[in-house]
Structure formats: structure tokens, C-alpha cells
Design brief:
alpha+beta; Rossmann fold; 2 domains; 6-stranded antiparallel beta sheet; 8 helices; globular
Length: 267
């Protein structure tokens, strides 16, 4: 067992260098993402033991949530090839986002260090950041096929968040935050230009009630690559599968189709 999730990439690199045909990540989405960043683009398969709180990647991959069944799945060794994404070269398996969420995560971790439990810290952090957060101005463009230049598909918006998912996410109803497939080969960016920061709890309520698309308060862009600029900012916090990283602008999001071999239940 590793001392912390921060040691996962190093341990995965050592295992890959030794010729391992599969590396098993036991933990939550952060640990899975860290190991995936090492094995993506290689022939080494990723096994997952869902030991985290939410386990989004495991659920969307169809991996059983109980430990015994997950171990049996890995032992059976059925492999499926799925996509990953990257932002400025950093791999993600679920999503990456800018705006209010990275600030909430930073505040949540500060409160946890003061002794608060995770979900209490998250609730307190959300309330504090919601009261003071100002929306970002973002320019979002999909580059022309085969070039690094921005094409005609572009958006400029003031939004409290920009969420970029590895494949399409459900944005309505009880399946909110889930994906039907991980092999569509595209990124999906979501933002809410007509929603003020103070209205984000209302947006969440609409989503859970299945009325986001009906109200047309959420916009989305699907593409293989996305070029994002925030005018006046040289660096920005980016939440990558839940881990907050400060990155230089601009941000280049890129889909990596069929880049990750995952051990999943057989058909």
C-alpha cells in the first residue's frame, strides 16, 4: 500500500518499466487518473479496484462496486480500449474544469486540514466561494482539423465554470454526472453563460429535476480539441480529475481516442 495517492504515478512507472502487462489502481478517481496518466498510450492495461468515495470512472466503465467482484473482474482479464483526455499534456479520465470548482477544492482542503470532515468541508467551502466568486470570461475555440489554429466553431462567454468531459456527460435527471460510453472519441465542454454565480444552486436543482435542457441554461461544445483562453490571465487553477493544478494559459484540451486499455467485465 502506498503512503498516499501522490506516490501512485511513480509506483506505476516502476511497474510499467518492469514489463507489467497490467497495473491495478486501488482507490478513488484521483488514484485511477494518476495511474492512467502513466499507462495511457501504452500496451499496459489498467485494472481498477473502486475504493474511493464516488468512483466515477469505475462506474462509467461498468466495473463492479463491490471489492470481491472487482477483483474477479481483474482476474478474468477482459480488456476494453477507451478514450482519455488531456489538458496541456496532463491526462484525465473523467474531466477537467476551470472556474469556481477548483477554488472550492482548494478551500475544502484547507478546511480539512483544520479538522473538518470531507463532506462538511466541501459544504462550507462551497458556501464561502459562492458568495464571493466572480465569473470568468473565456474564449473557447475548436481548432480546424489538422491544424493548430482556431477555427470557426468558437464561443466567448462569461461563466462561473467551464467543465470539459472525456466523452459526453448526462446533464439532466438522476443520472446526472454519468456517461453512457467512454469510446466516442470526443471532448464535451459545458458552461452556463446565462447563470450568475449565486444561481448555481438553482442550476443544480434544475439538473436534478431534468429541466436543464428544457430551460436552455447550459451550453455545450463537442470537439476533438478545444483551445481555451481567459483574457488577462497568464495562469489559472485547473481541476484535473479532482486534483487542482496551476497551469499556464492558453489551455489546449485534446481527446485521445482509444488510448487506454482497461480491464472490465466480459460481455
Amino acid at each position: 500500500m502506498l503512503p498516499s495517492g501522490a506516490h501512485a504515478p511513480g509506483a506505476a512507472r516502476e511497474a510499467a518499466a518492469s514489463g507489467a502487462c497490467a497495473i491495478v489502481a486501488g482507490g478513488g478517481d484521483g488514484t485511477v487518473s494518476a495511474v492512467a496518466s502513466v499507462v495511457a498510450g501504452t500496451n499496459t492495461a489498467l485494472g481498477v479496484l473502486p475504493l474511493g468515495t464516488l468512483n466515477h470512472f469505475a462506474r462509467d466503465s461498468g466495473i463492479p462496486m463491490d471489492l470481491e467482484s472487482a477483483v474477479a473482474t481483474i482476474a478474468a482479464g477482459h480488456i476494453k480500449t477507451v478514450d482519455s483526455g488531456e489538458v496541456n499534456g496532463r491526462t484525465f479520465v473523467n474531466n477537467a474544469s476551470i472556474g469556481i470548482y477548483p477554488d472550492i477544492v482548494v478551500e475544502r482542503e484547507r478546511l480539512r486540514q483544520l479538522g473538518h470532515r470531507k463532506w462538511i468541508a466541501f459544504a462550507l467551502a462551497s458556501g464561502r466561494i459562492l458568495r464571493r466568486y466572480r465569473r470568468l470570461v473565456v474564449r473557447l475555440a475548436a481548432p480546424r482539423q489538422g491544424s493548430g489554429q482556431a477555427g470557426d466553431a468558437s464561443e466567448r462567454a462569461r461563466t462561473a465554470f467551464l467543465f470539459v468531459g472525456n466523452n459526453e456527460y448526462h446533464v439532466d435527471g438522476l443520472s446526472l454526472g454519468a456517461r453512457d460510453r467512454l469510446d466516442g472519441g470526443r471532448l464535451f465542454a459545458y458552461f452556463a453563460p446565462r447563470v450568475h454565480t449565486r444561481e448555481l444552486p438553482k442550476l443544480l436543482a434544475l439538473a436534478l429535476a431534468g429541466r436543464v435542457r428544457e430551460r436552455q441554461v447550459l451550453e455545450s461544445v463537442a470537439a476533438g480539441q478545444l483551445h481555451v483562453v481567459t483574457p488577462g490571465r497568464r495562469r489559472l487553477r485547473v481541476a484535473v480529475d479532482g486534483e487542482v493544478i496551476v497551469m499556464r494559459m492558453p489551455l489546449l484540451f485534446r481527446a485521445r481516442p482509444a488510448s487506454l486499455r482497461v480491464i472490465v467485465p466480459g460481455a
